[in-house]
Amino acid sequence: MRRPCWSTRPAGKRNRTPQDWIKGLIGVSAEASHSGWKRNLTPQEARTAAAYATIELNGFAPYIVDLAAAHPSEVEGILGGEVSAELVVGSEYEHLPTLQNLSHADTKLKRLLVQVLETRVLGLTVRALCSGSETSILVGEVVLGALEVFLATAPDLQVIPHTEVFEIEIKEEAKLDEPSFQVDLEQMRGQFFWPANKSPAAFDYQKATVRSLMKVS
């Protein structure tokens, strides 16, 4: 049986939801109305329930937050997989349901899909907030590595950090050609936008990678 997700539908039918999937969502939602339902689910059942939650109209099915609290790995696997699949074909579709639903989702659900990489140099903690995809994590590691090299030479350049913590959110953009960096000095946060599924290690992309890392540093 196909997993009831946007990415598993035939390319030409992704704007349509099969009737049996709708019936499945209704069934899971009915079960979720009972107290303690999530505790009795097997890992496979939790993944199936998470998949059905993604086909709800106007956001995820309401039970997704409780399901994520009880089965975080299973929910992360489904939602993270959908996000990665949507980023691959992002330039081909105007509507990417999981990505759009996450932008309005409960904060607890967003945090489930975020992986935090961290480094500390000269008393400054720098955190890279990654979406969880392989590309996002690799970009986060490269950004922190570049900052470690820069900050290691900071004393020679007479550069002194003026904050204790700086966070950089790594965001993959399907329609982006070149990386870009935006910074909010008041909040001590930055956003590093990276072309989706473009590895920073790719030979044909190394110049763009170096330019972007110099800007971040």
Write the layout of secondary structure elements.
Blueprint (H helix, E strand, L loop, with lengths): L18 H14 L10 H11 L10 H7 L1 H17 L8 H7 L3 H6 L2 E7 L2 E7 L3 H19 L1 H4 L7 E9 L6 E5 L4 E7 L10 H11 L1
Parallel strand pairs: 2-3, 3-5
Antiparallel strand pairs: 1-2, 4-5
Helix pairs in contact: 2-4, 3-4
Outline of this structure?
The protein is α/β, with parallel strands linked by helices.
Write up what this structure looks like.
- With 217 residues, the chain is of the alpha/beta class.
- It is 44% helix and 16% strand.
- A hairpin with a 4-residue loop joins strand 4 and strand 5.
Q: Tell me the distance between the termini.
A: 48 Å
Number of helices: 9
Q: Characterize the largest beta sheet: strand count, sense, and whether it forms a barrel.
A: 5 strands, mixed
Strand content range: 15-25%
What integer value in Å does the Rg equal?
A: 20 Å
- Given helix and strand content, the structural type is alpha/beta
